[in-house]
Amino acid sequence: MKTYIKLIRITTLLLISCAFTFKIAAQQPQIKKRIAVFVFEDKTDRSWRWWNNKGVGNGVSDMLTTALVKSGNYRVIERQELDRILNEQDFGQSGRITPQSAAKVGQVLGVELAVMGSVSEFGYKKGETGGAIKGLGIGVSNQAATVGIDVRMVNTSTGEIVTAENVRKKKSAKGIKLRTNKLNFKDRKDFDESLVGKAAREAIEDIVSLIDNSANEIPWQAKVIIEKSGVVFINSGEADGLKAGDSFAVYSKGDDLIDPDTGISLGSVDTKIGEIKITDASIGNGKASKCSIVQGSGFTKGNFVRLK
User: Fold this and answer.
1) At 116, which CATH number?
2) Can you tell me the distance from the alpha carbon of 44 to that of 68, in angstroms, rounded to the nearest whole number?
3) What backbone torsions phi and psi does residue 164 show, to the nearest 5 degrees?
4) Do 202 and 288 belong to one domain?
5) What is the pTM of this model?
6) pLDDT tens-digit readout, 169-184
7) Domain assignment present for 40
8) Which of 216, 241, 270 is the last residue of a domain?
9) For position 86, what pLDDT does the model report?
10) How many CB atoms lie within 10 A of CB 202?
């Protein structure tokens, strides 16, 4: 009998604990992290072309952007906006993006995570697709396609590379197959049904998983746009998952703490100056919010907005 009563008590405590956890989770805004995907560098022989005549680096970046948007977990900066900032900051002239320049562009765009990388392998391996007869290839054994992508995720607040991985996928098919020597695709369906297209899709899925893990380690942050007559506007809204009633803490930025050895930002000593609550999260097509001041004063452009 005592054992039974003890079991009931333990079960009750567990249920109360779970209910409390769920309540806390429900109170926290389900915020989408903001991400910028830079065009990947093409380190292949540049013989492959997408169906829209883009190169492999552009094509892989577009695939990744589409996958992130479809996941519903992120707000991905549009390529046109990214290119505009690159040109304005003169980073687009060199054709190469470094973690430091990616972080600077990311800060201008207000994103937490920048994704960059290169395509090192893309296509069919030599000797694996058989011989050639008058412009046609005959694969008698295995036809294999390989896609290799080096990817890096950069914390835009610090410029630090938080994840660096090589993702390599190989797809093969057995049997006699005919192929042309064309190294491009007539349309998306042609690409998706090809071995190299399937290998690329699997590589992108792995990269999205890596991004999920990296994004969880980087705190969300928005900024104050302006404070006017007791109303604060911030650069995040329902497009990021925010809604009316969500409350946040506001901080004024302190001195940057720069590592003297690496030059990497270690953050800053920020001061909490108040709290705000969203009254309208639909400003600017959901990319900004109107907030009331719960407590504090002295809110100015550039103040950090963070979860309480």
Assistant:
1) 3.40.50
2) 24
3) -140, 120
4) no
5) 0.77
6) 998 877 545 454 456 7
7) yes
8) 216
9) 75
10) 15
pLDDT greater than 90 at residue 225: yes
DSSP type of residue 8? H
- Looking at the structure, tell me whether residues 53 and 165 fall in a common domain: yes
Could you tell me the maximum CA-CA distance found in the chain, to the nearest angstrom? 87
| pLDDT tens-digit readout, 237-271 | 999 999 999 999 999 988 877 778 777 677 778 89
Q: Examine the domain organization and report whether 158 and 287 are in the same domain.
A: no
Q: Is residue 2 part of a domain?
A: no
Q: What mean pLDDT is predicted for residues 29-54?
A: 86
- Check pLDDT > 90 for residue 211: yes
Is 176 inside any structural domain?
no
Number of domains in the chain: 2
**CA–centroid distance for 61 within its chain:** 11
Does 66 lie in the same domain as 207? yes
CA within 13 Å, CB half, 46: 4
**Alpha-carbon span 123 to 108, nearest angstrom:** 36
pLDDT (mean) for 216-224: 91
Element (H, E) at 199: helix 195-216
User: Which of 181, 16, 38, 27 has the alpha carbon at shortest distance from 106?
Assistant: 38
Q: Contact, 137 vs 178, CB < 8 A?
A: yes
**pLDDT over 90 for what percent of the chain?**
49
**DSSP per residue, 145-197:** EEEEEEEEEEETTTTEEEEEEEEEEEEEEES-EEEES--B-SSHHHHHHSHHH
For residue 255, tell me if it sits in a domain: yes
In terms of residue numbers, what domain contains 232?
A: 222-306
